[in-house]
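Lay summary. Proteins are chains of building blocks that fold into shapes, and those shapes determine what they do. In this project we predict the shape from the chain. Here is one chain we studied, written as its sequence of building blocks.
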Amino acid sequence: MNPSMGLAGSRRDIARSPCLRYSQKRGAGNGFTYGLGRSREGGSSLAELLVALGVSSMLLLGVFASSQQLRHAARAADNLHRLEEQARFALDLLRADIRLAGFWGLHADPQAVRRGSGAAVRCGRADATVWALRLERPAAAADGAWNLPCPPYRNRLQPGSDVLEIRRASLATSAADARSVQMLSSRREAVVFSAAAPPELGGSTELRDLRVHAWYVAAASSRDPQIPSLRRKTLVGGKILRDEEILTDVEDLQIRLAVDADLDGLADRVVDPATPLGADERVVAVRFWMLLRSEAPEAGYKDPKTYAYANRPPRNFNDGRRRLLVAGSEVVANAL
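And here is the predicted shape, written in a compact code that computers can read:
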């Protein structure tokens, strides 16, 4: 065979190749090579990569900022909700106690209550009988002062905070108990005593435990000596006044007393706790204010409020804590 003819035939076979014809149609300028018929895939430039990274970073920063704002808003809402729940809990206890002040069982005249044998109360190492058995004042208060013979919690009364005193009988009747101070009442009179057997009273009688409470705000709490707390001295079994912690992070308690001067069941004046009352005047309602704060500061939070209430001078706080001021009034039902 002629070698030249073989070479020409080979060239004609290559020209007839579908791959080659496809490459020829697309052209060399379109990124194809005649030998292989493949494309060169184009990549992104450095500038394009930098732009994409910048846009992605901005989007991520926006998402992060939004999540931070949502987190702060959720924390603020949670703190406010917790404050409202705590305030509701404390106010329910305080209102119920005020409403029952002067309840002695079958009658409500404190002048007809006499002291029997064994009625004695201690507070720590001090004798608190005189203070506890001031039954002629079932609802009373002290204006920023401490009148009990024993000290407040850790000997630290919150400066300027008032003290509310409530004296009454228990709602439930009791059996005679020599370890407790109790009240036996009839339709005509009542006697406070502590003995294994109650004294004799004519007619139908009821026996109940004596309840004595002193509501106040201490500058310390069981959680931390620097955290204030709402507390209560309460008469318990064993004839002692025990200190109870009601709620932490309560900063203030202020009291006003509505007084009936002519015994017609209507309030004639509203006075500060420091105002002396006449022998025949009765407290028929109590007005109170309570200031609560959140447990921990919030980053970036600034309280815009000015707190002015009762006889407190206007105050502002810049410690990053949320605060809630609640106020209310409650009628002393047994004084009407």
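What the prediction tells us: The first strand starts at residue 113 and ends at 115.
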